[in-house]
Amino acid sequence: MNVVNTLVVVGLGLIGSSLAAGLKQRGRVGRVLGVARRTETLQEAQSMGIIDAGALSLSELSGELVPGDVVFISVPTLAVESVLDECKACLPAGIIITDGASVKGSVLDAARRVWGVVPPELVAGHPIAGSEKSGVSACNPDLYVNHRVILTPVEETSIGAHQKVTALWQAVEAEVLNMPVDLHDDVLAATSHLPHAIAYSLVDTLAHDSDNEDIFRYAAGGFRDFTRIASSDPVMWHDIMQANQASVLDAIDLFSANLGRLRKAIATDDSEYMLGVFTRAKEARDHFTRLINKQAFVPKMQSKEVTYVMQPGGQVNGQIRVPGDKSISHRSIMLGSLAEGVTEVEGFLEGEDALATLQAFRDMGVVIEGPNNGRVKIHGVGLHGLQKPAGPLYLGNSGTSMRLLAGILAGQPFDTVLTGDESLSKRPMNRVVKPLLSMGARIEAEGEKGFPPVKITGGQSLRAMDYTLPMASAQVKSCVLLAGLYADGETSVTEPAPTRDHTERMLRGFGYKVSSEGPKASLKGGSSLFATQIDVPADISSAAFFMVAASIAPGSDLTLTHVGINPTRIGIINILRLMGADITISNEREVGGEPVADIRVQHAPLKGIQIPEDQVPLAIDECPVLFVAAACAEGTTVLTGAEELRVKESDRIQCMADGLITLGIKAEPTPDGIVIEGGQLGQGTVESYGDHRIAMAFAVASLRSSGPITILNCANVGTSFPNFAELAQNVGIKLTTQAQ
Ligand code: S3P
């Protein structure tokens, strides 16, 4: 169906002719009339089938137009005003006028000069598309597919005209956005006009440098990539720079100042400054590349959907090393940033959670090189060297990042806001807000449970305190201890049951004195952390999926190497052994203050047990996969004292029960645990509720299911175990992924 009967394109360059051709090819326009300065252009456009007829001036065609027809002005920016003059002189009432100029303030100013006001039929617009090629011969009917078109309607703009122009662009498969005029011109000055100015200036500089006659002969890919846009239409860009003068000058000034700083860093061998610029820029550019690779151009805010399709049966065999420990990876960035000197990390987990922590510290001015195959170099800024971030710190799915950071940020001189994804935005932060308030911090979260965003007002002096944890939580313990680094006097935390002690161990590794007496850990504020080397062991929480897999699948024999076996993390081994699992630990050693070992697991029949409550905090993240072990065990397994599971990335008691029941297992949730009767796992579709550990637990369950299992919403596996699917396939789990 036509979106417009007659379209007049004034200016048959790349932009105008591509819109005409795009509409024609899709059968969305009655006819296209062209206006060009030269008869040859009109002839060429007509012979290419882009226009049906043409003229050298708009007035020659205006008699053929009726209300609702559209005039699209695609001439160089400074020539738009003369076309608007012509429009005023010859167009009958009710003709919609739109344009494609790269600057919008100047077009609206021109309209005001011509008409005295912005006429309601004028809808200023800017397609963010194009190329260094110009002219009707460069015409591309698919130029706008998945590209953005920004419209800048003003108060006077008629709704009908705005709708029509929107429909026109949508008809050539563009995404239409609306923006205030000034914002458009500022954003484009920075993202488009400045890069063009620099590219033109660079090529001109090199071309005129007589000492460098051979420069183009030796110019390599970098030069080619960087300067492609210097082949663009000179008149068009001359006009844009003039039309957007103020915004372009601001962008050039900012860039010149930063280039000047970089020059100084190069002159004075300031490696840290250089690495800071280069690592931040690389990260930003890589992020952009990922966005544009995922979709043709428009990075729509779509959440990625990943489904695991599991075929039943199989066994797991071989030797694998799972990725680095998540808790230690987070802390290596945090403590490395707060230390004096350069900390080198190996085996860093490149999962989304730990990367969120890394990005947060980059946002606070810390220079971090990598991650590169698990290697990260952190240029510590000392306890008092963090800088105020430009905006809120976004921590994705990661509760650990948010809770531990809250402790650190409570002691900073600047304000911060911590935000997260949908799941994190529903997790209780009061558990850290309360003790931090008692220490004199100014911190607030939303509602009764204290949901994110968490707002921290800096510049408070923190008081040391003796805190008894109301729940066994390493995150809360760590938060208070980290705030204690900034408090006057000795801060102590007493826990109701042992929880992971990486914060205490790693602080000691960074040369900070932490004393532990039974359930109480204490430190005095005001000392310093010193850079160190960290070798992150493989994460026992990730290894747990394969430990259960090998235990439940007959014929399995799997070795997991270099796994962290910190005594506060080995609940999974203890519980599986109580259930009858065959686990051999060998090659025990210590790396960087953490015990590691190789773990061999062979299939063995499991039996249901009452899980000892003292093991629960030591296996808190492993419960989802333990429930799968329980479903495959003979008899009943009872878990109590695990209410913490209800406030993890999902309510892990309810969500696991739902999935197990779907698969035909008797599972009864209780307020603080679950009762599971071993049986035959069936087939079906289960939800992971976006919880990484639930997705992986059900993937393991397929080894003993009678039919296929489909697991929905698995993208978040990337938060803790980015190569899970690949490793699972390698050892024999029949997993395929479907991504949308
Ligand atoms: C973690 C502590 C645990 C755990 C989380 C990581 C840590 O949370 O579930 O995955 O690194 O301190 P709680 O301390 O809240 O139980």
TrEMBL record:
The keyword Zinc does not apply. It comes from the Bacteria. GO terms for biological process: chorismate biosynthetic process; tyrosine biosynthetic process. InterPro entries: 6-PGluconate_DH-like_C_sf, Enolpyruvate_Tfrase_dom, Enolpyruvate_Tfrase_sf, EPSP_synthase, EPSP_synthase_CS, NAD(P)-bd_dom_sf, PDH_C, PDH_N. Gene3D superfamilies: 6-phosphogluconate dehydrogenase C-terminal like domain, Enolpyruvate transferase domain, NAD(P)-binding Rossmann-like Domain. GO terms for molecular function: 3-phosphoshikimate 1-carboxyvinyltransferase activity; NAD+ binding; prephenate dehydrogenase (NAD+) activity; prephenate dehydrogenase (NADP+) activity. The keyword NAD applies. It is found in: Cytoplasm. It holds the Pfam family PDH_N. The active site is at D621. NCBIfam families: aroA, PRK14806.1. This is 3-phosphoshikimate 1-carboxyvinyltransferase. It comes from Simiduia agarivorans (strain DSM 21679 / JCM 13881 / BCRC 17597 / SA1). The lineage of its organism: Bacteria, Pseudomonadati, Pseudomonadota, Gammaproteobacteria, Cellvibrionales.
